[in-house]
Amino acid sequence: MAQNRENNVSHIHTAYSKQILAREAQNASERQQLIKIRKKRFYAIISVFIVFVMFFGVQIIQSRASLRSTDAQVVKQENKLKTVKSTNKDLKHEVKLLNNDDYLQKVIRQKYYYSKAGETIYNLPSQSGSLDKVNGK
Hints:
This protein is mainly α.
């Protein structure tokens, strides 16, 4: 009989005690194997979770970039719409004015040098053009 020096307990080496020790060793081995399986399963689950987080993270980033681009296009188109509306308003005003006969005659006389019978038109240089000639430009 071997005696354990630490706690002064001796073990009986019978067939039954050997069988119990073998079961304990087998249980310990099974526990170690179960721990390894659980660790592998844990790492697999964490890996799948990380892949999903990365996938959805990339999707979110792409969506935000697309949203910014769309917002920039919306702002650009709104500015363009404002200018078109302003131009449209000016053109409608001009159409209204062109329906007035007095204004229409004034525009035709100025733009196309149209004159009434017996009338002479003199074309004078503009002030900025005459300054350019004086300054040598």
